[in-house]
Amino acid sequence: MDAKTKSEAYNDTKKLLDYGFKYFVTSSLPKGMTYKKGEEIYIIPHKIMFTKLINSNVSEHVSKNGELKITDRKGMSLESFQLSPIKVKAEEKENTRDTLKESDKKKWYSYPLIMIIVIGSAGSIIKLFRSKRTNF
Q1: How far from the centroid of its chain's Cα atoms is residue 32's Cα?
Q2: Quick check: 32 and 7 in contact, CB under 8 A?
Q3: Has residue 125 got a pLDDT over 60?
Q4: Cα separation of 122 and 117, whole Å?
Q5: How far apart are CA 61 and CA 132, in angstroms?
Q6: For residue 36, what is the enclosing H or E element?
Q7: Nearest Cα to 25, choosing from 49, 59, 42?
């Protein structure tokens, strides 16, 4: 950008911004996302933002010391960040998995009950409207 006038500098800047908005997008990884490396579990303490080419895939890799590296398909580093390890005992990990499985079961059992209530309510409303229509 070796512009001689303000107008040239403006046009160069506009071209550069247009190029960036046309070919790049900002992506993010949400706060609380977890990664497992060996026996250690790491958590993202806050939202991590990074810029990548539009329609390109990225890879996420956690090193032995808990560093998250986000790279593009060519292996170019887009972002790196030190994650926080979660201190959880092995027994608690097992209990957490069991609890999640049990809560998933409870969700599935409630769906048919909810559907019966919705269908029954809809039927009652339809019956009520039909009876009011015949009374007029």
Answers
A1: 10
A2: no
A3: yes
A4: 9
A5: 65
A6: strand 34-37
A7: 49
> What number of CA atoms fall less than 13 Å from residue 110's CA on the CB side?
6
Residue 41 phi/psi, 5-degree rounding, is -115, 130
Q: How far apart are CA 11 and CA 3, in angstroms?
A: 9
How do residues 29-42 score in pLDDT, each as one tens digit? Answer: 999 889 888 888 88
Higher pLDDT, 117 or 102: 117
What's the DSSP call for residue 83? P
Q: Which amino acid is at 115?
A: M
What are the φ and ψ backbone dihedral angles of 24, each rounded to 5 degrees? Answer: -125, 155
Asked if 39 contacts 68 with a C-beta cutoff of 8 angstroms, the reply is: no
Q: What is the DSSP letter of 55?
A: T
| pTM for the full predicted model | 0.54
Distance CA 11, CA 4 (A): 11
pLDDT-derived band at 14, boundaries 50, 70, 90: very high
Q: What is the pLDDT of residue 15?
A: 92
Short-list 56, 19, 61, 14, CA closest to 42: 61
CA atoms within 13 A on the CB side of 123: 6
